[in-house]
Design brief:
Chain lengths: 159, 689
């Protein structure tokens, strides 16, 4: 839906580079409220399967989502490098997403980001969650479309 | 200073006055001769007029003015209260309420003139008194003139501006103005004693004066006047080019100004007065203080027992509430620290905890009390509503209320009005039979609707009961089948309670014909939803031919509760203490099966067992223990036994929401943070039973 949500008038943008398995993903730094270490997650029964549960972040209770489950990747393996990225969206509510590793912050100019067209009914669900592909020196960075990642899937898939 | 800062007060007070008008007009409809009530109405109408005028709401002022006229005639015994008049008056109140809503939303009163109502009011006066309104205003004017002349005698006493003392720089300014050929006036303005927004009046006078000249001194000081720290008069020294008549006219143009005394001052006079001032100050103060006791009893009688309330911004309360929450979390931290190293724990440490516990409990209670409001504020609009329904539905009915002083959390109060109104309308429209039918059935011709509120433990119960025909379960069942809510086969297996439950399904109405009172089927499901979001529940009991009772059960407080902490595997859950009855040890051999469901027989009553670990999808255990720990919870008269692995003890917990994105099953009512920072989910026993 909002594939161009990340686009702004500025020429350059900063992205946090995170690792999920072998792939690297970029998250627009504007969405990020906080990055915390992996901690005790309380399971919430009967919630969507991609929600691992809730955590306590300084007195606030925040739902934590497994981006791996949501993107149909293999289950999370929690390691010392695992982090929870706390995302603040324009709806003002906080949500945490689990990533394998947080690597660095990169600055990409807009010309280096190629937009991914999503035709709405593509079978490739992945494309729905990406807003573009950024070119770094000699690597590619898939930029996550945070709004679609945290949005509810349209089809009902849980009880 | 700006009138808009009074808007909030104006809205609140107007609401209060409208409410009291509503109540009193209801009384007067039944006892047209009740003098006290007539006086009360007159006063409320008068205050309304004054306030609307102050705020510059001309249309509202005009309407209340005409209303006041009517009451003035009634009070003087020149006309009597007729049913027609009462109807007109209620229309009048509705129009005023509309103005008020407009003002609340846009700070403007809107453009509706309500000419019809005004015409009806004036006609009522004409018919009632047999007098031409024109004459009346004339006599009024005469009266006020006569009053003015008698005021003249007290003139000297009222010229308080003579007591003003000018500082050097002020004298200098006066001198300069004099040289420029400007007039210097001493002015004392008296505001009507019935005036409610004195400061606003004073402000309007100041504004009028400042348009034409300059105020160089005022007593009391401007700041004090703004803060309403003055009696009913204030004096100023004023420099202007305009002549005395024009200034006087400008002041008197402001409404609710009783009178203004003024004269031109000469500088010499000022100087002399200054000397005299010191001597006369004592004397001058004397009449002022003497006049005070006179005013006091007057103001007391004009304002009878009004709820003395402090209006607190709800956001500030929420902040306070959050602070308390954190305090409790901190306390829980201490508690868990003390149990961890119980060996080293000294007595002093424990005392500290007890002390902290006492503080937090008290703080919690007092904050809760601030948030509490009597349910009265919601229910007192209902008698009027029932009266209107009586006319609209052509059914005789009477509303009996009790427990209006039962207190509930502010947020609950704000939300409970609509559901209650809906239930009452339902009772009036569907519950009660028509007049003829009641007579045929040998029931009293006037139907009764009861609204009872009372506190029951940690809950507040509100009952809406009628003595009408009750719910016809067969009709409900047939209607549900016809609408496709259930299949005929399903209908066979439903018991009475389940059939009544169908009423709360969306898009369900048993009324054969839709009236504009109720019956569109968007009702009871919304009522149920509203009540459930408040953490409460609703139950119906009914007896065909004798009436039905809707019982609403609401939690007293919303944010902090006492809970029993339990363990399931290594997960921790909180069960609200108020739904727990007992805790039992049950041997596995005592479990019986009824319709393949596990039950236990506890002291004669059969209680279904709920395996919490299965309901909550916990990882399965390797082996079943011999003895089960069962927490017996209840909802109304239903009971259930929750099987848990371990009991951890009782704790005061702070309820936190789980956030927006995550889907929450209704058996989880929230989460809380334990002493060690871990999150535990709160189970809603009501949803489990």
């Amino acid at each position: 839906m909002e594939t161009n949500a990340i686009q702004t008038v500025e020429d350059t943008k900063q992205y946090i580079v995170v690792k999920l398995g072998n792939e690297q993903y970029g998250i627009d730094i504007g969405y990020i409220d906080n990055i915390v270490r992996m901690q005790m997650i309380t399971r919430v029964p009967k919630a969507q399967p991609y929600f691992k549960g809730v955590i306590n972040l300084r007195g606030e209770i925040i739902p934590v989502m497994s981006i791996r489950v949501k993107l149909n990747l293999e289950e999370d393996q929690f390691t010392y490098a695992t982090r929870i990225i706390i995302i603040k969206t324009n709806q003002q509510a906080l949500i945490g997403i689990i990533v394998d590793e947080v690597k660095e912050v990169v600055t990409l100019s807009e010309v280096d980001v190629e937009k991914v067209a999503y035709d709405g009914n593509a079978k490739d669900e992945m494309a729905n969650y990406l807003s573009g592909v950024g070119k770094m020196e000699n690597e590619l960075l898939s930029i996550l479309n945070i709004n679609t990642v945290i949005a509810e899937k349209t089809e009902k898939e849980n009880g | 200073m700006d009138v808009s800062q009074y808007l909030e007060i104006f809205i609140d007070e107007t609401k209060e006055h409208l409410q009291s008008l509503n109540e009193h007009i209801l009384v007067i409809e039944k006892e047209p001769e009740n003098v006290d009530t007539i006086n009360e109405i007159f006063r409320a109408a008068h205050s309304l007029k004054g306030m609307a005028g102050t705020m510059g709401f001309k249309r509202m002022q005009r309407l209340t003015h005409d209303m006041e006229n009517v009451f003035s005639e009634v009070r003087n015994g020149k006309m009597t209260v007729t049913a027609d008049l009462v109807d007109t008056l209620f229309k009048c109140l509705d129009a005023l309420e509309e103005y008020l809503t407009n003002i609340q939303e846009t700070a403007e009163e809107g453009t509706e003139d309500n000419e019809e109502i005004i015409a009806a009011l004036n006609k009522a006066v004409e018919v009632g008194t047999g007098e031409q309104p024109a004459e009346k205003t004339e006599t009024k004017q005469e009266k006020s003139e006569a009053k003015a002349s008698s005021d003249g005698e007290k003139d000297e006493e009222n010229r308080k501006y003579k007591q003003l003392v000018l500082a050097d720089f002020e004298k200098h300014a006066v001198q300069e103005a004099k040289e420029k050929g400007m007039h210097i006036f001493g002015i004392t303005v008296f505001i009507q004693e019935t005036c409610l927004l004195k400061a606003a009046r004073a402000f309007l006078v100041f504004k009028a004066l400042e348009e034409m000249g300059e105020i160089i001194k005022s007593v009391p000081a401007v700041q004090d006047i703004e803060d309403e720290k003055f009696e009913f008069d204030f004096s100023v020294i004023y420099i202007t080019k305009e002549d005395i008549e024009k200034v006087k006219a400008a002041i008197l143009n402001v409404s609710e100004i009783q009178s203004a005394f003024m004269e031109e001052l000469t500088v010499e006079a000022e100087a002399k007065q200054e000397v005299k001032q010191e001597e006369t100050q004592q004397v001058a103060n004397a009449p002022q203080t003497a006049s005070k006791p006179k005013e006091k009893p007057q103001t007391k009688t004009s304002k009878p027992v009004v709820n003395r309330s402090v209006r607190v911004d709800i956001e500030k309360l929420d902040v306070l509430m959050n602070l308390v929450s954190e305090l409790i979390i901190a306390k829980n931290g201490l508690v868990s620290a003390s149990t961890h190293d119980a060996n080293q724990g000294t007595q002093g440490f424990n005392e500290q905890i007890e002390y902290l516990e006492r503080i937090t409990t008290n703080l919690h209670e007092s904050v809760m009390k601030v948030r509490m409001m009597p349910i009265e504020t919601v229910v007192n609009k209902f008698p009027r509503m029932i009266r209107d329904l009586t006319k609209k539905l052509d059914k005789k009915m009477e509303l009996y209320m009790s427990g209006e002083d039962t207190e509930l959390d502010r947020t609950v109060i704000d939300e409970i009005g609509d559901p209650l109104m809906h239930l009452l309308r339902n009772a009036a429209d569907h519950g009660l039979e028509s007049n003829e039918e009641r007579e045929r059935l040998g029931k009293p011709s006037v139907g009764s609707i009861f609204l009872n509120a009372y506190q029951d433990g940690n809950n507040v119960v509100i009952e809406v009961r009628d003595d009408g025909k009750g719910i016809n379960t067969e009709a409900v069942k047939n209607s549900a089948i016809k609408k496709g809510v259930i299949t005929p086969e399903q209908a066979e297996n439903l018991n009475e309670q389940e059939i009544i439950g169908l009423l709360f399904r969306p898009a369900f109405s048993t009324a054969e014909k839709v009236s504009d009172v109720s019956g569109r089927g968007v009702g009871l499901d919304v009522v149920k939803n509203n009540i459930e979001t408040l953490g409460g529940d609703i139950e119906v009991t009914t007896k065909l031919g004798e009436g039905s009772t809707f019982t609403i059960r609401l939690p007293l407080t919303l944010a902090i509760i006492q809970a029993l902490m339990v363990e399931l595997g290594d997960e921790k859950y909180a069960i609200p203490l108020n739904s727990i009855q007992t805790i039992e040890d049950v041997n596995i051999s005592d479990i019986k099966y009824v319709q393949t469901k596990e039950v236990i027989n506890l002291r004669g009553s059969v209680i279904p067992l709920i395996r919490l670990d299965q309901v909550l999808d916990c990882p399965p255990k390797e082996e079943e223990p011999e003895n089960l720990t069962v927490v017996i919870v209840s909802k109304g008269d239903k009971q259930a036994g929750l099987v848990v692995d371990n009991l951890m003890g009782q704790q005061e917990i702070v309820i936190k929401p789980l956030g927006k994105y995550i889907n929450i099953h209704k058996i989880i009512s929230g989460a809380t943070i334990l002493g060690d920072g871990e999150v535990a989910l709160i189970l809603d026993a009501n949803a489990l039973v």
